[in-house]
Specification:
With about 260 residues, the protein is α/β, with parallel strands linked by helices. The chain is built from 9 helices and 14 strands. It has a 7-stranded mixed sheet with strand order 6-5-4-3-2-1-14. The longest helix is centred in the last third of the chain and has 12 residues, at about 220-230. The structure holds zinc ion (2 copies).
């Protein structure tokens, strides 16, 4: 399996997953122009994409889904409840709905879906699997639930939200209601919360760790990295660490 975060953060997210010549995209908050530019920059071939899956209906995840689906003739996969709430927003697309908890089958790639904790109708987190590799994806998560934590154990790779530094958020420019939203059970994971989860999720088989959805206002890539490093420092086997960016794609990570 290879994967690449074309963008990560509150201005737009897009994750590319590929196996045996078939690719799927999870979320797209980028314009078509930006999506193609970044895919090209990462050396990815867009004709391989057949499907796009939506984690939840915030603009940074769904904003570019309709245009990209029309441009590349993709099937859009969304939970039934999320689709109901977004009926008009996607425009005309080939839509396939599913119930949270279902495993979606894309030939050599399967996607296990699980309920998230976020302020949208039916947010989901994922475990991506091929016959031999596994990748967990959990961002936009107010709290690390038992369900998600259990499913993220013993994977080959993890994409985990390190959204904000608590002090930067509390001392920062956000209005109080927004600070409260970010901190709530339906908001985002702080560096400290993500590091705490990482402590019990890291294991000798974890090869790749990506820190994702890092706030530009309430965090820095360095603080997120420090929080993760503080957990990994006393591990005998350390995963490769990638810090995803809002502005440019990560390297294509091979599992
Ligand atoms: Zn988001
Ligand atoms: Zn969100």
């Amino acid at each position: 399996m290879r994967f690449c975060l074309l963008a990560s953060g509150s201005k737009g997210n897009s994750i590319w997953i590929e196996r045996e010549g078939r690719a799927l995209v999870i979320d797209n908050g980028l314009s078509c122009v930006e999506f193609f530019k970044r895919a090209n920059q990462a050396g990815l071939v867009t004709s391989k994409i057949k499907d796009i899956v939506v984690s939840h209906e915030h603009t940074d995840h769904i904003g570019g889904v309709g245009p990209l689906a029309r441009k590349l003739n993709l099937t859009v996969h969304m939970t039934r409840l999320a689709a109901l709430s977004q009926a008009t927003r996607l425009g005309v697309v080939r839509l396939k709905t599913f119930e949270t908890g279902q495993t979606l089958d894309f030939g050599p790639i399967s996607l296990q879906t699980m309920t998230g904790s976020h302020d949208t109708v039916d947010p989901i987190a994922f475990v991506v699997k091929t016959n031999s590799k596994s990748l967990g994806l959990a961002t936009d998560l107010g709290v690390m639930t038992n369900l998600i934590h259990q499913n993220l154990r013993n994977l080959d790779a993890l994409i985990l939200e390190f959204n904000h530094d608590l002090n930067m958020l509390l001392d920062g420019p956000y209005p109080f209601f927004l600070k409260q939203r970010v901190r709530s059970r339906l908001g985002h994971l702080s560096n400290e919360e993500a590091a705490l989860a990482l402590k019990t999720l890291t294991h000798p088989g974890l090869k790749e760790l990506v820190l994702a959805h890092i706030s530009q206002t309430n965090n820095t890539p360095e603080l997120a990295r420090l929080a993760a490093e503080s957990v990994l420092a006393d591990q005998a086997h350390r995963p490769n660490l990638t810090v995803a960016s809002q502005f440019s794609p990560t390297a294509v990570i091979e599992l």
